[in-house]
Amino acid sequence: MWAAATPPSEEQRRAGLVAFLLVPVLATGLAAGALRLAEHGDQPPPHVERSYVLEPAGGTEQRLIPSPARPDPAAAVVTVCSPSGPAAATACPPATLTSPPEPAPPPAPAAPPVAAPQAPPSNPAAAALANLINARLADPRLAGTTVGLSVWVEGLGEVVGHNADLPLTPASNQKLFTAMGALSLIPQTDRLVTEVRATGTQEGRVLNGDLFLVGGGDPTLNAKGPHSLDDLAAAVKARGIDEVRGALVGDESRYDTVRGAPGWLPQHVPVFIGPLSALVVDRNQLRPDAQYAANPLPGTLPYFRAALLRAGVRVLGPNGAAPAPVGSAVLAGLGSPTVGELVGEMLNQSDNLIAEILVKEVGYRHRRSPGSGGDGGETHRTDRPAPGSTAGGLATINEAVAKLGVPITGVAADGSGLSREDRRSAREWRSLLQAVQAQPWAERLVGSLPLAARNGTLARRFGRTAAEANVRAKTGWIDEARSLSGYLTTAGGRPVVFSVIVNGTTPTSPALNALDTLVAAIAADRS
User: The dihedral of CA 146, 423, 175, 523: what is its sign?
Assistant: First the structure.
C-alpha cells in the first residue's frame, strides 16, 4: 500500500560491483550509464515521510542515500558550527536543496547562531572520544544541515554536546516521547477492545433493533482474516442471530473526529497514515479519496456488513453513525494486542498510526474537566462522556514525562513525529533516555528499540560495523530531518547514551550515512 520505493538489495549492489570490475578486462566499451544496477531505474521518486519503507516480503528497512564521495572524515578540520559541516566556523555553508517535494514543505527554521567550541575534556579517554566525534561532525555529507548532538559515556559524563540545547524537529524520535507517556499512564496488559452492541430485543434468531460497531481504538483490526471483522461477525452469529431488522451503526465516539495533528502536511492523510478514529479497520487506508480521509466511518461499515453476510447474518436497515446507547447489550468483543505490545511495535517498526492512537487513548483515559485548561494543571476524570484527543493526550503525557526528573522544554504537536511543529533538543532526548533506565517499564521501552543490523528500522543499517547487534536506538526520517537516539556499548566496554538530530536535510540528502558513520565510530572506540 505504501508508495515508497525499495532501495537496492545487497545482491544488486554486489552485481554492480562485479560488472564494474569486469569492464576493463572485457573491454566491451559499455557506457558508464549502463551499469547503474544499484539505482532505482525508472521508478518514481519515493515517499520518505516514514521512518521506514515496506518491502514486498514484509520486511522493513531505513532508506539509505549513497554517499557522493568518501573523504576521510577524521582528516577534516574540526569545526563546531551550526549549520554543521566542514566549513570554517565563521562561514557555515548555506543549505542546498535538490529535488524539492511537491508541494514544497514549510521553510526550515532559521539557522541558529554559530555554536561556541566546547572546552576539551580533561580526561584523556573523554578527550580522545570527543576528538573522534568532532571529526565526524565535519563530514561533508552534513554540509548545509544543522546537527544537534549529545553523547554521554558512563564514567566520563557528556563527552560532546554540539548544539545540544537547540530545539530541533525530531521526526520519528517523537515516538520515544509517546512511548514514555503511554507506558507511564496505561497498564501494559490492557487491550483496546472493539465491541458489537445491540438495542432492541431478540426473538428467536431475529434482532428487532440496531447493531452497533463500537470502536475501542484498536489500530490492528483487519477487514478480513485473522483479528478482523470476520471474528466479530462470527461472534454475532454465535449469539443465535441470523437477521437484524434495524440499522448497522458505527460508533467512533471514544475519540474526537480530528483526523490529523498540527504541523502535518496535506499529503500525510491518507498516504502516510490513515485518518485518525477510534474505529480503525485496515489501518484506515481502505480508500485514498478526500471524502474517506475526512470521515472514514461510512467507508468502513460496508466491510462489516459484508463480514456479517459471510457469517450468515443479514442486516435489513441502512448504515448510520451514532454513539451506542448506554446500557446496550454487548454481543461481541475483540481485544487488540496488549498496550505493551503496541508500544513495542510502534518503536520497533516506527508505526505512525499506533503512536497517534496511543496519544488519543491517553487523552480518553485522563480526560480533563471543563476549566482545567490542559496547561499543566491537575488532570481530572469526568463522569460525562468526553472523547480522547491529541491535545489532551499530549498535555497528560507531558506531565507524566516531566515526572522522570528531566526539565521538559521541548514541544510535542503529535505522537508520531510527522508534525513539523515538534521540537526537542538532543540533550533533552539523551537525558530522557537516561532517566528511563530507572523506570519499571524500562525493559519494555529499551528492548523494543530496533537493534542494529538485526530488526526493525535498523535491520539494514550498521552491518559489519562495531554498531552491529550493539546499537539499540529509535530512528527518525522526514524530508527535512534525520534522527537517531538510543544506547550502545563502546568496544572499550563503556555504556553510551546518545541523541543525534539532523535538520535541514532534503529527500536525497546523504546525511543519514554521515550519521551512521558517526555512531559506528563511537561504538568502535576503545579508549
Answer: positive
Query: Is the peptide bond between 94 and the residue preceding it cis, with omega within 30 degrees of 0?
Result: no
DSSP 468: T
Rg (CA), the chain: 26
Which cell goes with 287?
480508500
Helix, strand or coil, per DSSP, at residue 282: helix
pLDDT digits (tens, 9 = 90+) for 421-437: 999 999 999 999 999 99
The β-bridge partners of 194 are: 334
**Helix, strand, or coil (residue 367):** coil
What is residue 42's predicted lDDT score, i.e. its pLDDT?
Answer: 34
> 103 preceded by cis ω (within 30°)?
yes
The C-alpha torsion from 506 through 496 and 10 to 15, rounded to 10°, is 90
Helix segments in 312-459, DSSP class H: 339-349, 352-365, 390-402, 426-436, 442-448
Torsion angle of C-alpha atoms 174, 51, 109, 276, degrees rounded to 10: -60
Euclidean distance between CA atoms 271 and 298, whole angstroms: 19
Start-to-end C-alpha separation, the chain: 47
Residue 499's beta-bridge partner residues?
Answer: 150, 485
Question: pTM (2 decimals)?
Answer: 0.79
Low-confidence ranges of the chain (pLDDT < 50): 1-114, 116-117, 369-384
Task: Kindly report, residue by residue over 199-253, the tens digit of the pLDDT.
Answer: 999 999 999 999 999 999 999 999 999 999 999 999 999 999 999 999 999 999 9
- Measuring CA to CA, how many Å separate 80 from each of 114, 244, 275, 386, 423? 8, 70, 42, 50, 22
- Dig out the grid coordinates for 33 from the structure: 550509464
**How far is it, in rounded angstroms, from Cα 412 to Cα 169?**
10
Q: C-alpha cell of 100?
A: 524539492
Other C-beta atoms closer than 10 Å to the C-beta of 84 total 29
Instruction: List Cα–Cα distances, 2 to 5, 50, 282, 479, in angstroms.
Output: 8, 10, 13, 16
